[in-house]
User: Which sequence fits this backbone?
């Protein structure tokens, strides 16, 4: 009897404290909303490797970039290009000359004037050897020269027509950095307090491993077209805390210690949806879907039948359900549904999830015997395919997903899928030595064509399938040179069909960003094309 | 006793200390030299050109290459290079991170504070708790010792990562007593330090308690009891000294646990520190930083174990004259 009372008292006390925490939390969530527009703390999953927008490479760091930096061009809801620091532009008939009119009222955080000379300095910076070799070689491969034809007029000449040039100018890479900091910054490549832009917030404190802090730029008056308001940002300050552990981020939100979290794990989505004090929003990312790319340079994936069999051996819906509990969007093509302007929906339900066909294909391909463990063998060799994943790039529980696929292909078709999670150096070595059969990748490029150019053509930077096809390369070249969206859409539909016919990939899911926030937060939006969370410019706390 | 004899006895005591101290400092330096050499050899053994390895993912220009060749003396003979490297280390020059484009010394110096604070607090928590646990449970009723042993086992076997999340869930998210993240004042230090200290407390507590229990069965304990000493006094004044020696031996392991655990705990709690630096240096192939972290760990290890060895001498006078 005594013991029972003890338990009851304890439970009562816990319930009371739980109630206490619950009643406190909303107050904390709206806290700090003074007349100055309030302050906000936002927990993010990934600490950026760099704060220099021109060195940017992590899609997860995108939400920070436009606090501090403005690009030349913005994107609209339907992917259209909108004025930002460039008010208008004209493209010559041959597609080689771009003339930009620039805003004349913009000042960098260090007091420098924004003008045609500063844009030229930013573009020329990419030509400095080693500054950003990848961008120089890919996005700017057709860049010829920039010249200031007036204080606020800039002429850019390309070496060849390039349908992706405007997309580049709307990306974080075109974040305008003060020419003074391009010259004098202590850590130009790492960015930070002395690499400054023209954005609505000023980065004033960065504690590695802990947080980055921005304060409002009181002079800001040049938001991109499509913003919900004009003038300076509402918030007087915003802090992004780096909390790599998902459970910790969610706990910090539910206890009111932070007001917004990014990267909500599938396991917590139900909990957040059930909590009336919290909101959850999801947005599909643009670019390529997360897929397994098959290395066709050697056995067993040099045989199209085996590639098809692997694709058929997995019931993707079941696998996604078990790993992401119904919160992941299934992918059907190399381009994800987050890039609606190019996604080819006709591929849906045309392949996959057919173990009977998978087994038949494997029998035909000569993998018709089984060893003691039930794996298929041919000429005394087991049907083994290996993937190496570089640990720092594993997100969205892709390691668990790989295990689920592993179980599925073993059970349904006797394929031995080996998953190795390694450091970046080891992964690179495996790629260099061609010691892998599956390559996992998704890319968040705002123009899906950029992703395809990196992955598909012969000799492309991450063509780790080693697939070569003159037809495919021709389609991609033609699409890159065109700035006619309808024509590009048609070309990319052919590309997607070809990739599917060749069974070059197993598309798994479309990466998405999930954001959860307390009821007191308003104005939180996603960038229309990339699908990643917007900067804090339009955000407010309190009512 | 005259002043003269006192002085002479003190002098003798100092002489007795001199040999062992010199020996331990000497072997400490030898370990540091070996660590520096190992780090250097690993730089040479990493596949690829040494300049490429040192640049890592950093800015790759002809000027920078020239700078690296000059800085590391890569145009000189292998022996000269090695000598230059050791000489630079002796001057406290740890080199330059070509990825972060800053001096390695600067990078470590800016991040070492939070880690040292965390590790020292955890060490303090761990030892005090272990000592308290051992003193209150040793030689008492068997079920009490059993219970303590069980909780120690749990503390040792649950990874700090999980302990951290559990502590946060209860004391930060539910009760709201501590903040989740960062290095912001003593309050934010409590939970990460506890998470880091529990495994230490578990092992240390076990060793201390067993040591105490063994000591309490020694003949001297029986003698002391026959003189009518209270059990509490017996434990605190006589048995503890015997139990302390094996516990102190564990300090080396202890240091390793703190350094390794800090990487995980810093990440769970979103704290700044060396853990983050080490992690990103390894993943970003930032060789100068990795080498410096190796040296720093060796230095900490050597310092701690030298202090431990000297503490032995203080605890057990027999060791002073034995060698």
Assistant:
């Amino acid at each position: 009897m005594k013991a029972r009372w003890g338990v009851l008292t304890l439970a009562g006390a816990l319930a009371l404290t739980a109630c206490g925490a619950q009643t406190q939390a909303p107050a904390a969530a709206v806290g700090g909303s003074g007349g100055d527009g309030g302050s906000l703390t936002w927990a993010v999953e990934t600490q950026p490797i760099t704060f220099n927008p021109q060195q940017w490479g992590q899609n997860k760091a995108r939400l920070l970039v436009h606090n501090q930096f403005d690009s030349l061009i913005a994107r609209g809801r339907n992917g259209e290009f909108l004025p930002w620091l460039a008010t208008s532009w004209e493209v010559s008939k041959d597609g080689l000359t771009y003339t930009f009119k620039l805003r004349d009222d913009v000042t960098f955080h260090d007091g420098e004037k924004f003008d045609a000379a500063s844009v030229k300095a930013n573009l020329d910076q990419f030509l400095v050897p080693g500054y950003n070799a990848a961008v120089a070689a890919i996005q700017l491969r057709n860049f010829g020269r920039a010249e200031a034809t007036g204080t606020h007029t800039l002429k850019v000449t390309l070496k060849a027509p390039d349908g992706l040039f405007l997309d580049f100018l709307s990306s974080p890479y075109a974040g305008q950095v003060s020419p003074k900091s391009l010259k004098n910054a202590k850590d130009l490549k790492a960015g930070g307090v002395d690499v400054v832009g023209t954005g609505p917030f000023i980065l004033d404190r960065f504690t590695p491993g802990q947080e980055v802090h921005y304060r409002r730029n009181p002079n800001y008056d040049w938001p991109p077209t499509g913003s919900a308001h004009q003038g300076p940002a509402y918030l007087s300050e915003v802090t992004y805390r780096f909390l790599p552990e998902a459970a910790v981020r969610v706990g910090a939100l539910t206890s009111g210690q932070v007001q917004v979290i990014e990267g909500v794990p599938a396991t917590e989505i139900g909990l957040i949806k059930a909590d009336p004090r919290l909101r959850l929003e999801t947005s599909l990312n643009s670019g390529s879907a997360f897929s397994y790319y098959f290395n066709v340079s050697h056995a067993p994936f040099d045989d199209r039948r085996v590639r098809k069999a692997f694709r058929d051996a997995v019931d993707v819906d079941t696998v996604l359900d078990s790993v992401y509990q119904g919160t992941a969007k299934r992918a059907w093509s190399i381009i994800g549904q987050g890039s609606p302007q190019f996604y080819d929906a006709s591929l849906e339900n045309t392949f996959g999830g057919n173990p009977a066909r998978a087994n038949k294909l494997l029998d035909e391909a000569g993998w018709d015997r089984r060893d003691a463990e039930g794996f298929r063998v041919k000429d005394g060799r087991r049907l083994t395919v290996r993937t190496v994943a570089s640990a720092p790039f594993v997100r969205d529980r892709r390691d668990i997903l790989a295990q689920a696929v592993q179980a599925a292909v073993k059970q349904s078709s006797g394929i031995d899928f080996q998953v190795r999670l390694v450091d970046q150096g080891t992964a690179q070595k495996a790629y260099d030595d061609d010691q892998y059969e599956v390559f996992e990748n998704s890319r968040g490029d705002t123009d899906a064509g950029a992703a395809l150019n990196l992955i598909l053509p012969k000799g492309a930077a991450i063509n780790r399938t080693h697939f070569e096809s003159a037809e495919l390369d021709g389609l991609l070249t033609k699409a890159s040179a065109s700035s006619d969206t309808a024509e590009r859409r048609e070309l990319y539909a052919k590309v997607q069909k070809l990739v599917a016919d060749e069974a070059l990939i197993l598309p798994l899911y479309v990466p998405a960003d999930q954001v959860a926030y307390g009821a007191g937060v308003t104005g939180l939006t996603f960038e229309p094309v990339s699908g990643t969370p917007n900067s804090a410019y339009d955000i407010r706390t309190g009512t | 006793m005259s002043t003269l004899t006192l002085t002479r006895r003190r002098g003798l005591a100092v002489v007795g200390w001199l040999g062992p101290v010199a020996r331990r400092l000497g072997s400490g330096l030898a370990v540091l030299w070996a660590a520096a050499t190992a780090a250097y050899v690993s730089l040479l053994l990493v596949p690829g050109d040494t300049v490429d390895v040192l640049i890592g993912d950093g800015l790759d220009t002809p000027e920078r290459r020239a700078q690296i060749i000059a800085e590391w003396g890569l145009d000189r003979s292998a022996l000269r290079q090695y000598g230059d490297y050791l000489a630079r280390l002796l001057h406290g020059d740890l080199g330059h991170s070509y990825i972060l484009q800053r001096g390695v010394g600067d990078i470590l110096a800016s991040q070492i504070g939070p880690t040292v604070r965390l590790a020292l607090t955890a060490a303090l928590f761990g030892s005090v708790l272990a000592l308290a646990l051992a003193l209150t449970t040793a030689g008492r009723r068997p079920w009490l010792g059993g219970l303590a042993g069980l909780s120690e086992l749990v503390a040792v076997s649950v990874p700090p990562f999980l302990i951290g999340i559990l502590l946060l869930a209860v004391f930060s998210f539910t009760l709201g007593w501590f903040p989740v993240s960062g290095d912001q004042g003593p309050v934010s230090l409590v939970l990460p330090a506890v998470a880091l200290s529990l495994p230490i407390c578990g092992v240390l507590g076990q060793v201390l308690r067993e040591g105490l229990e063994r000591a309490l069965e020694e003949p001297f304990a029986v003698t002391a009891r026959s003189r009518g000493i209270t059990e509490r006094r017996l434990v605190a004044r006589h048995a503890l000294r015997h139990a302390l020696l094996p516990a102190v031996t564990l300090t080396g392991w202890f240091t390793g646990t703190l350094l390794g655990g800090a990487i995980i705990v810093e990440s769970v709690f979103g704290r700044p520190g060396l853990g983050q630096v080490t992690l990103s240096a390894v993943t970003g192939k930032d060789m100068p930083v990795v080498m410096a972290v190796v040296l720093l760990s060796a230095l900490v290890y050597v310092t701690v174990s030298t202090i431990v060895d000297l503490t032995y001498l203080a605890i057990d006078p027999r060791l002073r004259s034995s060698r």
Remarks:
- Residues 435 and 480 of chain A are 32 Å apart (CA to CA).
- Chain A is about 30% helix and 20% strand.
